[in-house]
Design brief:
alpha/beta, 6-stranded mixed beta sheet, Leucine Aminopeptidase, subunit E, domain 1, Aminopeptidase, about 500 residues, 2 domains, 9-stranded mixed beta sheet
């Protein structure tokens, strides 16, 4: 889809549909809506009087061939209460509008920004929402009803350097869609080997350094936790390492290096501690944390921040084969710490332990990991917020501030030493599940913290937010790409 700025009058733009939005107020007709009402001889006022146009969140009012407007249709989308209308709401509203019109055959659309959101940042949010709404979960359908989609979108009413903001939106949204497309793949088509190949191809196209390590190399590196999880599968594991070096001038000695670590279990049966069959098909999504970090690298390679970034993505299947790790086994991680495996379905923290330690070996001075790690985060936060854990409050608050500005919902969770105590083992340095009651997301984070040393570290538990079981008005069912835009923005703050 092409997206461009246009300065033509909203009344005279040629399009299949013109989009704007109305707030939920006593009188929702203000600004451009008042102009549209005059142009249509009071048609919008009639709809307000009939309670068909109220401004309620994502209410869709579609007028066909409105008098006085050159566009074939006028779509007024409810924006809800003005005080609750933030960056995330504008992005979702734009996406919902596109999907509403896409299903009605619109090819050329225009989106009119209005006060108080007419700045370049608003143009970026709208462009992101439009691009993210394009993706559908129909890759393997032979009858693709929505295959054509919207071909061209114009953004009207933007101020400032909006052209640059739209290009930035394209970079971020296309990276998110790349991640969503990869994460939606079934596990028979996306093994660890194939994921590594796709990561390498993306890295080469993006100008990133790439290293892919196979099973023998991982064994030489003494990544015993990763190898332990991989033992039960016929598919060999892979370790994916991407490096972004900023352009000249080179960073000074001692400059920060950001390490991004992501869990990439391409299918999780639970291993010997096998999961129930209900919804196990969704466990192809267990690589979303790793794909998130790969997508962040794709975006920053194009945005070119001034910090070196290293991404480490350990990838394997978790299967109940004859050689699979068993409850009671002890693994030796790359760091040398020993781990008693009490539940083989707590495998994500095992592979991340080696990934985090290796990122430190590569020179990372700050660490962020992302993983579909625990069912406990679903219990704590449902599918609304990402769980955010951190070792240093200032570092974690900086990230939460960036996420809030990006319009992504995240919640600061505790990772006190008390949770670490729940992971003590009588026969090893750590056990891989808590011995306490409750607090499973925090005790899992405390386990990971043991492999981060003294470095500032943030853990994102995206288990509840990385996947949609049902479509939203603004996004198709499947992988969501959550946290990618926040991580890109956060990287640039360095």
């Amino acid at each position: 889809m092409q997206i461009q700025l246009d300065s033509v009058s909203p009344l005279s733009i040629q399009a299949d549909a013109l989009i704007t939005f109305a707030f939920e107020k006593d009188d929702p007709l203000e600004g451009p809506l008042a102009e549209f009402d005059r142009a249509t001889s009071g048609r919008l006022r009639e709809l307000v009087a009939a309670h068909e146009l109220t401004g309620k969140w994502l209410e869709m009012v579609l007028l066909h061939y409105p008098a006085g407007v050159q566009a074939k249709r006028l779509l007024v989308v409810g924006a809800g209460k003005p005080e609750k209308f933030g960056n995330g709401e504008l992005r979702r509203l734009a996406g919902a509008a596109l999907r509403h019109l896409k299903s009605r055959g619109a090819k050329r659309i225009a989106f009119l920004l209005r006060e108080p959101r007419q700045d370049a940042g608003a143009a970026q949010l709208v462009a992101e929402g439009l691009l993210l709404a394009e993706l559908d979960l129909d890759k393997y359908k032979t009858d693709k009803k929505n295959s054509a989609g919207v071909e061209h979108a114009a953004i009207l009413g933007a101020t400032g350097d909006a052209a640059r903001s739209i290009e930035r939106a394209r970079i971020i949204a296309e990276s998110e869609n790349w991640a969503r497309d990869v994460a939606n793949e079934p596990s028979n088509r996306l093994t660890p080997t194939v994921l590594a190949e796709r990561a390498a191809q993306m890295a080469r196209e993006s100008g990133l350094e790439v290293a892919i390590y196979g099973e023998k190399q991982i064994e030489t590196m003494k990544m015993g936790a990763l190898l332990g999880v991989a033992r039960g599968s016929a598919e060999p594991p892979r370790l994916i390492v991407l490096t972004y070096n900023p352009p000249e001038p080179e960073p000074k000695p001692g400059a920060p290096v950001l390490g991004l670590v992501g869990k990439a279990i391409t299918f999780d049966t639970g291993g010997i501690s096998i999961k129930p069959s209900k919804a196990m098909d969704r466990m192809k999504y267990d690589m979303c944390g790793g794909v998130t970090m790969l997508a962040v690298m794709r975006a920053i390679a194009r945005l070119k921040p001034s910090i070196k970034v290293v991404a480490v993505v350990p990838s394997t299947e978790n299967m109940p084969g004859g050689r699979a790790v068993k409850p009671g086994d002890i693994l030796v991680s790359m760091s040398g710490k020993t781990i008693e495996v009490l539940n083989t379905d707590a495998e994500g923290r095992l592979i991340l332990s080696d990934g985090l330690f290796y990122a430190r070996q590569l020179g990372a001075t700050h660490l962020v990991d992302a993983a579909t790690l625990t069912g406990a985060i679903v219990v704590a936060l449902s599918n609304v917020n990402v769980g955010v854990f951190g070792s240093q409050d200032d570092f974690t608050r900086r990230f939460l501030d960036v996420a809030r500005a990006a319009g992504e919902k995240m919640w600061h969770m505790p990772v006190d030493d008390d949770y670490r105590d729940m992971m003590k083992s009588p026969i090893a340095d750590l056990q891989n599940i808590s011995s306490g009651e409750g607090g499973g997301a925090s005790s899992a984070a405390a386990f990971l913290k043991e492999f981060t040393g003294d470095l500032p570290w943030i853990h994102l538990d995206i288990a509840a937010t990385a996947w949609l079981d049902d479509p939203k008005p603004w996004m198709a069912k499947g992988a969501t790409g959550v946290a990618i835009r926040s991580l890109v923005d956060f990287t640039e703050t360095f």
